[in-house]
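Input sequence (146 aa), recorded before submission:
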Amino acid sequence: MNVNKVIIVGNITRDPELKALPSGAAVATFSVATNEVYTKDGQKHESTEFHNIVAWGKTAENIARYMKKGSQIYIEGKLQTRSWDKDGEKRYRTEVVALNVQFGAKPSGSSSAPAGEDDWGGMDEPAAPASGGSTDGEINPEDIPF
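Predicted structure, token format:
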């Protein structure tokens, strides 16, 4: 059995770039930074990894529309390595192809939505539990947003 699955939760390092292929397919490219804090020899260290991300279709359009540099994002995808020749030299690039994406919390004090839109295009933030603060394990079907 073979598995090619990647899960990344991090912050977008540059505004996503949306392009349309000649076929009309939308593709968005951007990068995500993930941080790791660890202790070595009694000293605190931090390392950052940068991941190249590619998204296709409606996912690409939504990412380009609602996400920007600094936005937190959850990505499930697969690793893919592309190769091409440039000036007679073989070049390689390993990317995460996004298959499932969830946007992080809406940044406070700023809107990442286009002007005139005060929500995430129908992607509402989770509602607080009904009065009493407890859901008692019951889910009301009318509360499900889809």
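Checked by second reader. The chain has one domain: 6-119.
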